Amino acid sequence: GQPLVVIAGLNVLEDLSMAIEVGRHLKAVTADLGLPYVFKASFDKANRSSITSYRGPGLEKGLQMLAAVKAELNVPICTDLHEVDQADPVAAVADIVQIPAFLCRQTDLVVATARATAAAGGLLHVKKGQFLAPWDCRAIVDKIGDATGGKAITILCERGVSFGYNNLVVDMLGIGRMKDLGVPVTIDATHAVQLPGADPRGNSVATGGRREGVPVIARAAVASGADGVFLEFHPDPDRALCDGPSALPISEAAGLLAQLKAIRSAVGGA
Amino acid sequence: GQPLVVIAGLNVLEDLSMAIEVGRHLKAVTADLGLPYVFKASFDKANRSSITSYRGPGLEKGLQMLAAVKAELNVPICTDLHEVDQADPVAAVADIVQIPAFLCRQTDLVVATARATAAAGGLLHVKKGQFLAPWDCRAIVDKIGDATGGKAITILCERGVSFGYNNLVVDMLGIGRMKDLGVPVTIDATHAVQLPGADPRGNSVATGGRREGVPVIARAAVASGADGVFLEFHPDPDRALCDGPSALPISEAAGLLAQLKAIRSAVGGA
Amino acid sequence: GQPLVVIAGLNVLEDLSMAIEVGRHLKAVTADLGLPYVFKASFDKANRSSITSYRGPGLEKGLQMLAAVKAELNVPICTDLHEVDQADPVAAVADIVQIPAFLCRQTDLVVATARATAAAGGLLHVKKGQFLAPWDCRAIVDKIGDATGGKAITILCERGVSFGYNNLVVDMLGIGRMKDLGVPVTIDATHAVQLPGADPRGNSVATGGRREGVPVIARAAVASGADGVFLEFHPDPDRALCDGPSALPISEAAGLLAQLKAIRSAVGGA
Amino acid sequence: GQPLVVIAGLNVLEDLSMAIEVGRHLKAVTADLGLPYVFKASFDKANRSSITSYRGPGLEKGLQMLAAVKAELNVPICTDLHEVDQADPVAAVADIVQIPAFLCRQTDLVVATARATAAAGGLLHVKKGQFLAPWDCRAIVDKIGDATGGKAITILCERGVSFGYNNLVVDMLGIGRMKDLGVPVTIDATHAVQLPGADPRGNSVATGGRREGVPVIARAAVASGADGVFLEFHPDPDRALCDGPSALPISEAAGLLAQLKAIRSAVGGA
Questions:
Q1: D45, D42, D5: which is closest to D186 by C-alpha?
Q2: Helix, strand, or coil (residue D56)
Q3: Which residue in chain B has the smallest CA separation from D167?
Q4: Residue C256, CA distances (Å) to B90, C171, C231, C234, C268 in order
Q5: What is the pLDDT of residues D30-82, one digit of tens each?
Q6: I want to staple A247 with a disulfide (CB 3.0 to 4.6 A). Which of A234, D60, D129, D224 is the partner?
Q7: First to last CA, chain C
Q8: What secondary structure, in 3-state letters, does A145-161 show?
Q9: Which residues have C-beta within 8 Å of that of residue C15, sequence separation ≥ 6?
């Protein structure tokens, strides 16, 4: 079997030295375990609840930072985009270009990103919308195939589906249904534990203890056949500028990834 | 009380004469009932499942058609957009500019559209995402307020929330929660009955009889306090180029709107 | 069309004088409106969260109280049961015997109650389980038909379906699907607004303002075609021994029922 | 850590020789793996959709069969009950007495079963209702504690929660929340994959391939920290008299249980 792919890094770029620090650590940990590694960080968080929230360095500066991480660490890069105009510049830097979940049905964005990514020799990481069934992803896979002349560049990512209000649930049976579409499937354990719409820093009651859910979802999804795992870390999660409550401390990476490797081995994946 | 507002027309623009025919009929019907009327049609369906589906005339030709409807019928116009660049030209023609449900959390689009719409003296019709709780709309209302210096231009639209796979449900209690945010609330009864992800023309079994649900949702929502109703009609729904299975025949407009007016009267709305 | 049926009274029997007071008031209000009236109260709340909660007077004393209400007011009686052994004594007093939602799939209880009720000339009011789809009720209707030699004694009652955790939602499209089974359908607007699992007296945050949802659900369901409404009142809801937070003050009965009658009239029901 | 507990056997008793055959095989497989084993079979399926479906041998004959299995194989026994009157006779034979999911909120049944089970020195296996949140189980645990003077006899079992219509989902984060109540938690992977309300033998489209989901749910739940697994097997699932479509062939027991043991080892459980 194939080894578990690890797409991991930061929720959003803060400064270059932190990005390199996190990437260097994750590269070392995954190398020890013999797992393929891709560094991930966003340059723009385009759907923050508030207009005044930190969004990241933006396209130009962000891509420069990602290129610097790549040059420094010699690792492939994954980042996400939100507008048609970003497809070419992002595909020039990122090895894996990511479509956000809310945007996975926007034809123009998916088509432009697929074409730019295919032309650059990269892969496309599509987060499944919180409003989609596993089998609904067939339309997305077909759309990318139609746009690229049938190139097999799609990876689907499960990140939870709407379950009542202000909650998501990961349906572990869905991972197999997504793999049935003929593509690799990853689990975004970080966003799957987020409580949508509830401010994790506010006084909403339901947000306690979700960070501890990240390893649970990751382990369960690998046990269910996921081919890769998507995880966000931070050197000091409680001071992260975005989504700190679901970020794992970087110190937990080695232990968790070793567990995931052992589970994948138990289910015959590697 | 205020009379029920009617935003109604076509799912997507096909040809100008059909748009005028539908708008003329709806203008006459609403005038008879004493209800305010806004003509609605989309110029681009940007999230069709398939890359080969009909999407509409596009921005330029579509706005020309909408301006022609406005000139011919002297009615306000509602249409939706999908990209930041479309905000100014759309706000120049449309009296009510609509943000699609999947895009309601995209900060750049919401902000650009709010500013363009406020500058043009229009209103903003924001479809609530299928992944949002009613109270989550507060962040959207605040974002628009922040972007426009506090102008009260927002109308929220309920169109159903994810309920398991390939289904939506309208929570009638949510209409009041959205009104609690201090904005008018409409019901999009047409999209609320759609079965997401399932092809309504295919052999999926769950799609029968949904068109008959449109009047049910509209009646229930008005009984629950909705201030307006959003409805899509077609002269011949089974030949519509998009979303025909949820479109009502134009011949049913008068009867349904009369019922809705009577219900609103029963609940003290007018 | 048929007039709207009103099944209304107390959540649980407390003392006889209160039951008669509530029943007398509701009888007068419904008589003024020309609506058929059935007095409802439970003798035992068999699934309270805590073992120490008030459950009611029990079978023997409760049936005596219900018989006294019937004798005093000359109205039909509706009450619910929980065990096979209760079927005969309950059917001897109640004109409408009710199966609780959690128990609607228990074959022995449904069959025994159906037979006892049919033998006594009564009707069966089956609450749809929170875990059932509207069309799943066909099996229940068939089971009752099989048990009674095909007697048409079944009324189905919608009281909400599980929607995430600690929440229910009423799918207004489901009312029509239940009526498609050939039976009358009522809406239990009182239980539909309860937040399951959350203690309405505790410090759980989600419970505020639900009582105000009762009229909303009732109005929406009648607008959607419900044939009857099930409502619980109390002279002083905040002092009710069970489920006070969802009980309406008896003083609100006249206004709400007049509204419901007007809505039913608007949709062609009477 | 503790080894994974295996509660496994037949959905419903058919004949004694099959019960012994299945129990003998599972005893041997679990002994090889060093896992504690409990034989499970029901004597009555009390909530079949149809009145004419096979329900099992009934209380008296069923308990005789279970006692014979226990005598023949020298294994503890798990079976479920549905009425207060069954508590004493069932607790006299079963080492683990099970409360069905639909009945987990029925106070009289839970209390009578808890008392009979505690008196007989057994344990109580409570299936979490499809309509409950993980934390709602606190009320059940407390109720059992109140009924037994605080005896720690409760095991909670996750079997999926309502997710839209005719579907369940297992929330892997819920397993930890149930363990937080201070009790062991098992996963019923067999019932968790059932599609409620849809006839698995009929022409409903959604039922394909669910049996293959049983190992997925079992693996994911053990990776998420479940202390035990509940599984139903059959020598020839396609000829099973009840719930064959979710039963695993007995020949798959050894491979699956070895995998589950390896996953538990990977997550530190044994």
A1: D5
A2: coil
A3: B164
A4: 44, 21, 10, 15, 19
A5: 999 999 999 999 999 988 888 889 999 999 999 999 999 999 999 999 999 99
A6: A234
A7: 4
A8: HHHHCCCCCEEEEECCE
A9: none
Q: Which residues in A lie closer than 8 A to residue B46 (C-beta atoms)? A: 106-108
Give yes or no for residue D206 having a pLDDT over 70: no
Mutate to test the interface with B, among C224, C260, C264, C265 (most CBs of B within 10 A): C224
Tell me if B220 and C216 make a contact (CB, 8 A cut-off). Answer: no
Residues of chain A with Cβ-Cβ distance to C197 below 8 Å are: none
User: In whole angstroms, what is the distance from residue B7 CA to residue B188 CA?
Assistant: 9
Please give the Cα distance from C209 to B105 (Å, whole number). Answer: 27
Structural domains of chain B, count: 1
DSSP state of D204: -
Distances in Å between the Cα of B83 and the Cα atoms of B103, D30, D209 are: 9, 60, 41
The residue written with tokens 């994959």 in the block is D193
Are B108 and A46 an interchain contact pair (Cβ–Cβ within 8 Å)? yes
Which H or E element spans position D217?
helix D213-223
Distance CA(C6)–CA(C8), nearest Å, equals 6
- Residue showing tokens 């929980």: C82
Which residue in chain D is spatially nearest to C102 when comparing CA positions? D102
Neighbours of chain C (3+ CB pairs under 8 A): A, B, D
User: Do residues A124 and A113 touch, judged by C-beta distance below 8 A?
Assistant: yes
**Domain range enclosing B99:** 5-266
Between CA B78 and CA B40 the distance in angstroms is: 5
> Is C136 in contact with D47 (Cβ distance < 8 A)?
no
Q: A touches which chains (3+ CB pairs under 8 A)?
A: B, C, D
D165 to chain B, closest Cα gap in Å: 7
- Cα–Cα distances in angstroms (integers) from residue D249 to residues A212, D56, D211, in the given order: 36, 20, 10
Residues A5-17: tens digit of each pLDDT: 999 999 999 999 9
Q: Supply the pLDDT for residue B210.
A: 85
User: What distance in Å separates the CA atoms of residue A157 and residue A154, rounded to the nearest whole number?
Assistant: 10
**Residue of B136, B173, B260 for testing the chain C interface, max C β-carbons within 10 Å:** B173
For the stretch C147-202, pLDDT in tens is 999 999 999 999 999 999 999 999 999 999 999 999 999 999 999 999 888 654 44
Using CA coordinates, name the residue in chain D closest to B161: D164
Under a CB-based contact definition with an 8 Å cutoff, are residues D15 and D41 in contact?
no
- Considering only CB atoms, which chain B residues are within 8 Å of D160? none
Q: Which among D80, D198, D165 is positioned nearest to C129, based on CA atoms? A: D165
Contact by Cβ (8 Å): C198, C207: yes
Is the per-residue pLDDT at C3 higher than 70?
Answer: yes
Mapping DSSP onto H, E and C, the string for chain A reads CCCCEEEEEEEECCCHHHHHHHHHHHHHHHHHHCCCEEEEEECCCCCCCCCCCCCCCCHHHHHHHHHHHHHHHCCCEEEECCCHHHHHHHHHHCCEEEECHHHCCCHHHHHHHHHHHHHHCCEEEEECCCCCCHHHHHHHHHHHHHHHCCCCCEEEEECCEECCCCCEECCHHHHHHHHCCCCCEEEEHHHHCCCCCCCCCCCCHHHCCCCCHHHHHHHHHHHCCCCEEEEEEECCHHHCCCCHHHCEEHHHHHHHHHHHHHHHHHCCCC
Residues A12-41 as b/e (b if ≥16 CB within 10 A, e otherwise) read: bbbebebbbebbebbbebbeebebebbbbb
User: What gap in Å lies between CA B144 and CA A49, rounded to an integer?
Assistant: 11
DSSP B16-27: HHHHHHHHHHHH
* C-alpha D198 chain-centroid distance: 21
Q: What's D242's domain CATH number?
A: 3.20.20.70
Among the partner residues C167, C204, C205, nearest to A164 by beta-carbon distance: C167
Catalytic site positions of C: 11, 45, 243
Q: Do B223 and C225 touch (CB under 8 A)?
A: no
Count Cβ atoms below 10 Å from residue C152 Cβ, excluding itself. Answer: 14
